[in-house]
Amino acid sequence: MMVFLGLSWSVFSQQDPVLMRIGGKDVLRSEFEYNYNRDKASLAPKDAAPEKYAERFVNFKLKVAAAEAAGLDTALAFRERVEGYRSRLIKSYLTDTVVTEKAARRLYDKMKSGHRAGQVRVSHIFKYLPQNVSGAALRDAVARMDSIYEYLQRNPDSEAFDSCVERFSDEKQAFRVSWLQMPVEFEDVVFGLSAGEMSQPFFTPQGIHIVKVLERLEMPSFESVKEELMARRAHRHGVDSGAEAQVEKLKKEYRYTPDKTGVDELINTGRTNRTLFTLAGKNYTGHDFARFAAAYPAGVHRQLDAFIMKTVLDYENTRLEQKHPDLRCLVRDYGNRLLADKITEQEIRKRAATDEAGLQAYFEKHRSDYQWKEPRYKGIVLHGVSKRIAKQARKFLKSLPEAEWKDAIRLTFNAGAQPQIFAEQGLFAPGDNAYVDDLVFKGKDAASMVSFPFTAVLGEKVKGPDDYREVRDRLVADYQNYLDNQWTARLRASAKVEINQEVLKTVNNH
Description:
Keywords: Isomerase, Rotamase
Protein name: PpiC domain-containing protein
Organism: Bacteroides clarus YIT 12056
Largest sheet: 4 strands, mixed
Pfam families: Rotamase
Number of helices: 19
Number of strands: 14
Strand order of the largest sheet: 1-14-2-3
Domain PpiC: 117-215
Shape: flat
Strand content: 15-25%
CATH topology of the domain at 119-217: Chitinase A, domain 3
């Protein structure tokens, strides 16, 4: 039931007033405005006014409420998807993107000006060496690689290198390398080689290599690699400079105050029970640090820096929705859309796709909607090796049901080593089949098939489908709309909907 209220609610005086109540739940003007402004560009002019959009929005919220009533919002998969979406969004709020982008730009310029520009495609002869490799095994690996290298120097052709990769390498696929993607030891070698050049044997933390550069690729634009460079830089150096810059700003905002006594005791002894620092009025102690340090193996200085950084960012994370309404809207809307889509899948789409009786009944009731603008030909096109065979096939099929035509052709005329008939059966609109156009719709003459030069047709012109399955795709879509309208009507009838018209007038105008 929809109730349009002209009176002012008490909350109208608030900065973000209640615009409507749906089933007893308040909807603030900000939520409605977010959805309206997002969808407005795609609305038809007649539906673009807030008053018109309100109907559509109410239907959406009723479906979300139905999903919540069904417990879909408590499902683990749903919660994980929403949290994953939020995690991707908050990265931009927890880092100083200007600082991060400047660092990426410096890195890009350094790559472009040096020999590490672009990418290299390489193939290598690689032997994995574990960290605890024995001296004897290491000497054997070095001797083997030296022997391979000497052989390749005497046989510098590509076939010899490829053969050694196939026979001796633990990694047999060629691959591309960009800066900050592989260990420094590997990059130092491969970026120093020209296309076609081979390295001497060298070590990386993974093992021992002989590399050949197959191709050098040009440097892509900064915009196309900016995000990747920022991620690689953070991975290589263990921290994002943009995040560091953001933490310094947040420290001032939340009144970060280190406790020198506690910090000195931790640095000198490796442990303390004292307060290490205060953030937003809360003390963080050596006990808090110890729990973090147990999962972060490093020196005490690095552990403390990382603990402070994580504490500041974690606190900011709890306040993001309060500080940034746009984030709150994005996450809420993402979850609502997931819920509405899931409940619609259960209530409408699955049923429409499998309810054969319902589809047939809907088709019979709305048969006139599926009449074609111009007749179509329902039948079979028979291409025979001779005129006599084509005529025989046509006469033979006349006595059989349409559903048996193709099997009859296969068993009667095409059972031997040499097929006698090539058949095309179906529903043909003008333009679908040249032979139907020629013989049925009296269009342009069709050229005969080389192997089956004699053509006959059997069937009839029809104005509309005889069976709902002939228009199934369109019918399923129409049936979905029909079921959705029925379902929405039931939801509207079971929930009280109130809209404050005075607040509605202020949408995008306050």
